Amino acid sequence: MSDDKLLDAIIAQTKLTKKQTDKQQKIVETAIKLFAEKGYANTSTSEIAKAAMVAEGTIFRHYGTKDNLLLSVILPFIKDSIPTMAEEVFTEIMSKNVGCFEDFLRALLKNRLHFINENREIFQIVVKELLYNDELRKELLPFFADNILHRITKVINTYKDRGELIDIPSHTIQRMIFTLIGGYFVSRFVLQLDNCDIDEEAEIENLIRFIMDGLRKQ
Amino acid sequence: MSDDKLLDAIIAQTKLTKKQTDKQQKIVETAIKLFAEKGYANTSTSEIAKAAMVAEGTIFRHYGTKDNLLLSVILPFIKDSIPTMAEEVFTEIMSKNVGCFEDFLRALLKNRLHFINENREIFQIVVKELLYNDELRKELLPFFADNILHRITKVINTYKDRGELIDIPSHTIQRMIFTLIGGYFVSRFVLQLDNCDIDEEAEIENLIRFIMDGLRKQ
DNA sequence: ATAATAAGTGAGTAATTACTCACTTATTAT
DNA sequence: ATAATAAGTGAGTAATTACTCACTTATTAT
Prior knowledge:
By secondary structure, chain A is mainly alpha-helical. Chain A is 80% helix and 0% strand.
């Protein structure tokens, strides 16, 4: 509870006041780069200061603690982008294509792919710290669940009612889609396993085909 | 090259000589526990020493560096268990059930589930460090590829020849299976997202059904 | 123009880090 | 039994860590 207040305060400050100094911006920029590259625990504040060409004290003037810097990097991204995006995505996709589930899936996948492509580094940080940092995981996972998963479940239910989807629990379906798409993004953007010989469009279509119809012939 | 020699030496030493001291065993045990819990970077050697009730010097007597301790924990597990297991799994599974691909998948999944269940902590360490530690990733990923993936590709090709599987590139199929099963294991054993309301047997069957036939009704 | 506030600095600090080394104690080979 | 070797110790060390604080410089409000 008190934690949430603090975090909300950080976000409010970062968003509302808006007047980030040049140095402040440089610090966050550099922190994102280094955290993504080497992980939070392997990046020292002195390293960030040097790379951002700023006195180490400046970091602590603005962010107080190293932990706070991480949160200032991650949380605005999460708490701002995700829900807004989610809202946008789901309403837009659902209204535009009243088409089949496959079309919904394709739109969702392309949208997310584009989004993560634009935010590779923060995605890398979030994934790494989600595994490494217990506190952060406990903070973020429920947030994901509340904002993303229940929306997907809704959509799945809609299509299930239309008789387009098989009859297993919605949250199981949602979980498998999430695992597959999430796994695809992680292997591509975090592990950077490049599948160089196949183009992206084809890869997406393969993924969708797999999700829709599985591996069995016919 | 020189790295590989060193690592092989570590493994040879740990395996062949076999005469691990009580203290040595305690150190490795404790390191596994702490690395799994808090991650390598967040665990200090003094912490390990204290928890293992050993002088800090003893750790360095045996392992030389902290990095080496990590390798001594991970590599014997990887380089020993994985190939042996893989061999075992693939020959056994393939000879016993000359059945359909679904049966192969079921056997593989259950086998791996059992294996990881028995080695939760090391699995946690490997996954975490695979994302966090560039060096280790570069060392391990090719090893995985050589030992596991090409075997799966072989099996997939067999079943493709029998006309049981759809006609997309084998390595794409293999990658999607790996992503899905890997993602399932990670979400379960590392993120520890518990799906408390469904029993394991049913969950596995859902997973297999999804892989085989996808989400589309009929 | 001036006062008040915020931004920025960098030397300094206590704590912690991985690691060493001279030494003692246990184990093994003879 | 004795010598040789390996295992174990813990005080010590240089480097690094996150963070502080007295101070200077820039920005804003009046």
